[in-house]
Amino acid sequence: MTAARIRVVLCDDHELVRRGLRGLLESDPAIEVVGEAGTADEAVRVCNDVNPDVVVMDVRMPGRSGIEACRDIRATRSETRVLMLTSFADDDALFGAIMAGASGYVLKQVRGNDLLDSIHRVREGQSLLDPAVTARVLARVRGEVTTRSGDPTETLTPQEQRIVVLVAEGLTNRQIGERVHLAEKTVKNYVSNVLMKLGLSRRAEVAAHIVKQRRDTDAQEWV
Fold first, then answer.
1. In terms of Cα–Cα distance, which of 91, 94, 92 is closest to 106?
2. 166 to each of 30, 145, 158, 204, 210, how far by Cα in Å?
3. Which of 43, 88, 94, 210 is deepest in the core (most CB within 10 A)?
4. What is the pLDDT of residues 67-83, one digit of tens each?
5. C-alpha radius of gyration, the chain, whole number
6. Closest Cα partner for 82 from 112, 56, 58, 106?
7. What are the CA-CA distances from residue 156 to residues 44, 93, 186 (Å)?
8. For the chain, give me the number of helices (H) and strands (E)?
């Protein structure tokens, strides 16, 4: 009896990248590409429609990030595995991917056969996360749990702290990028990660959050 093929959805905002990935994946008779998406929201919709076994997800996409899409997909489809694909290693992105429930994190420089092997392995329930990376993330989680009773902004990296202040001032992603010398798309990903860490859903809430934290801090100093 022939085993069922692995149903895969490809998520990347570049059509040419998706075409290349599709060609590679379809060279494996055990894999079937059942859908594509160019944004995080589209990825969630496609996964709801086609019920994939594995999602190959670009970390950075326009609008909401691939990490946010991973979190949404895993929240409703725990049986679907997500394999994050990115151009470079980034501790913040690794942290976000693991916390979002990703089964693996692969650099785009990976060899074709290795990517195919990664898809087979995550479909079988294996984790492709490097033990050293996982250890760093667990240490970070423990640190955040310790500080969360105080000011959640203490869990932000120095770059995130700079960005959150600019968000609170009402600057757009483009304006923030000009201030801190980052691409607008990179700023979007930073803002998404900051909102997740602070437990906020909209950037408009950031200013109110900071004001509240400062008031609480001032009140504690007078006790």
1. 94
2. 49, 26, 13, 12, 11
3. 43
4. 889 989 988 888 999 99
5. 19
6. 56
7. 28, 13, 16
8. 10, 5
Determine the pLDDT at residue 53. Answer: 96
- Calpha distance 144→133 (Å, rounded): 17
Q: Which residues pair with 36 in a beta bridge?
A: 10
Instruction: Say what the pTM is.
Output: 0.62
Residue 82 C-beta-side C-alpha neighbours within 13 Å: 30
Would you place residue 143 in the very low, low, confident or very high pLDDT band (cuts 50, 70, 90)? low
H or E segment and range at residue 104: strand 104-107
Contacts of 223 (CB under 8 A, 6+ apart): none
Helix (H) or strand (E) holding 36: strand 31-37
**What does the alpha-carbon distance between residue 187 and residue 87 come to, in Å, rounded to a whole number?**
16
HSE on the CB side for 67, CA within 13 Å?
24
Q: Give me the residue label for tokens 């059509």.
A: 15
How would you label 70-104 residue by residue, b for 16+ Cβ within 10 Å and e otherwise? bbbbbeebeebbbbbbbeeebebbbbbbbbbbbbb
The four Cα atoms 18, 105, 154, 205 give a dihedral, to 10 degrees, of 30
Percent of residues, the chain, with pLDDT higher than 90: 32
Query: Angle at Cα 180 formed by Cα 175 and Cα 186, nearest 5°?
Result: 80
* Backbone angle region of 55, left / alpha / beta, with phi > 0 → left and psi within -120 to 50 → alpha: beta
Give the list of residues 6+ apart from residue 147 with CB closer than 8 angstroms, or none: 154, 155
